[in-house]
Structure formats: C-alpha cells, structure tokens
Design a protein that fits this description.
By secondary structure, this protein is α+β, with helices and mostly antiparallel strands. About 15% of the residues lie in helices and about 40% in strands.
Length: about 280
C-alpha cells in the first residue's frame, strides 16, 4: 500500500479507536475521526492513504483534492522557512511542498491563502509530498487565447518563476508570461495577479503586463509621489532631472513615468521644484 493513493480495502477488525483495513496482505488503520459513516466487518470501503503526524501509514474516508498523478489548485495553509510550504489537500493533515521545489528567495515563496497547482508524490524516504505541476502539465491544461484577447484585462495565478519573468495561468485558462520589464516588483509563486494582455502569440499563449495603462498610471504614480512627499514633511531630493536609477530604486517606476506624474502634480499646483528638490505647495 502506497501513501497518496485511493484504494478499496476490506474492513478486517474493529479496535476501540477505529478499524483496521486490509488488502489481503497488509493492514492500515482507519481512525474513528476519519470515518464518514458506520462500517461493518468484511465491508469494502474506498479510502485515501496518507501518513499521520507520527509518520505511520493510515487511511481516511475523506476524498482529497489531489492524489498521486492527479492535479488541482490547493491552498497554502502554512509557511515554514526551513522546510517549505504546507498545502491543504482536503484531509485532516496538510502536505508539504519541499523547500527544494520552491524559489531560492523566501520573499518569492507563496503566502498563506495563495494557491498552487499540485499533485502528490512519494520521495525516496517514503514521505508523502505535494509537487508543483510542470510547465508541460500546465500547457496541456491550457486553452489558446484568441487574437481578440489583445489589450483585455486578465487575472491569474503565478505558477512558475524564471530569471526573465513569471508564468501565470489565467482564470479562463490562458498561459501568460510576465516579462521582468512589465512589472514593478516580482510576483511570488502562487500569487493572484491582475494585468492586461499586450501580445497574443501563435501558440495561443499571451504576454501580460502588470503595469497600469498610461492614463491609469498617471493618477497612481502621482499619488505615490505625493504620499512620499507627505511622509518626508513635504520635501524630497528628487526632481525631473534626477538620475533614472535613483528614481527606479525609490519609486519603482521609469524616469519617463516619474516626469509625467510630477508634471501632473505641478500642473495641479500640488508641488513645485527648486534647487534640485521638490516641495509640496502649502495651502494658505
């Protein structure tokens, strides 16, 4: 008997804390807390096999969202930096996604409430683990985006991170790629993100931008700059001639976007520039 699989077993004997089930050669415990209805001796029952907190093979009548070889979205229940993240698969015990399968940077790990598309596997030590779906699995699941998807808003979960960007699986089943130039910060694995389609490729996948459209970003960028000014008492050592790298580091936006937003604030008589500094216009 192998953890991670559904099996139909026979009720062999009752004990004070549950029943022992058998496949004819091995036995496994079905605890009373894992029963969904009364059982009778010699009855056949379909159960899921997993390891309890002591590492012992046991059974549950609860049907998990995923098994060995089947996939689904499962929610992150806990994050343990030295081990990995635990996901809720629909039974009483959460299952580990190993640190070996997660990004090197902890800040890119999923957080509680994020979702991962997973299956189950058993490692060399016999431990039951959750494993992330490969890119091949996700592409088999995906649908091709039509050309009409261009410039449409899109929402999806990040399922893979690479050096050049991140892949998402959208609500409607598109595979999307977010290039590093099309985001203000790197999304974490399992994060739900929203953006827009900026390209539909021949294979039906899409390129996605998490950056707001220009007319949307003006208000957002201007508000960010103004709030930063307020946090500094109304003055900052940044202006329209500041170094682009300094602007990028501080505001996570390009110099062109910074200048547009600053111009909007100046036109609205919210700020003014003087001697390489920008100041809030004080109301009289």
């Amino acid at each position: 008997m192998i953890a991670g699989e559904m099996m139909t077993l026979t009720v062999k004997r009752e004990v004070p804390f549950g029943y022992f089930l058998t496949n004819g050669t091995e036995e496994v415990l079905l605890h009373k807390s894992e029963m969904e209805r009364p059982l009778a001796l010699e009855e056949e029952v379909t159960v899921f096999l997993y390891h309890d907190h002591q590492g012992r093979l046991c059974a549950t009548m609860k049907t998990p969202k995923i098994t060995n070889g089947t996939y689904d979205w499962v929610e992150v229940a806990d994050v343990v930096p030295k081990l990995g993240v635990f996901v809720n698969i629909g039974i009483s015990k959460d299952v580990l996604v190993s640190i070996d399968d997660l990004p090197p940077l902890l800040e890119l790990w999923p957080k509680r409430g994020d979702e991962l598309y997973c299956s189950l596997k058993t490692d060399k030590r016999g431990r039951l683990l959750a494993q992330l779906a490969t890119d091949e699995v996700m592409r088999q699941l995906a649908v091709k985006a039509p050309e009409s998807a261009f410039n449409q808003n899109v929402r999806g979960r990040v399922y893979r991170l690479i050096k050049a960007g991140a892949f998402l699986f959208s609500d409607v089943g598109y595979i999307g790629f977010i290039h590093e130039s099309q985001r203000r910060k790197e999304p974490r694995l399992g994060e739900l993100v929203e953006g827009r389609v900026i390209g539909v490729k021949e294979d039906g996948t899409v390129n996605v931008s998490l950056l707001p459209r220009k007319h949307e970003s003006l208000d957002e960028d201007a508000d960010m700059i103004y709030r930063y000014l307020e946090s500094r008492g109304g003055a900052m050592p940044y202006h329209d001639k500041s170094d682009p790298d300094d602007i990028k580091a501080r505001f996570h936006m390009s110099k062109a976007a910074f200048k547009r937003a600053l111009g909007r604030l100046m036109k609205a008589n919210k700020v003014y520039q003087e001697n390489g500094w920008t100041y809030i216009v004080k109301e009289e």
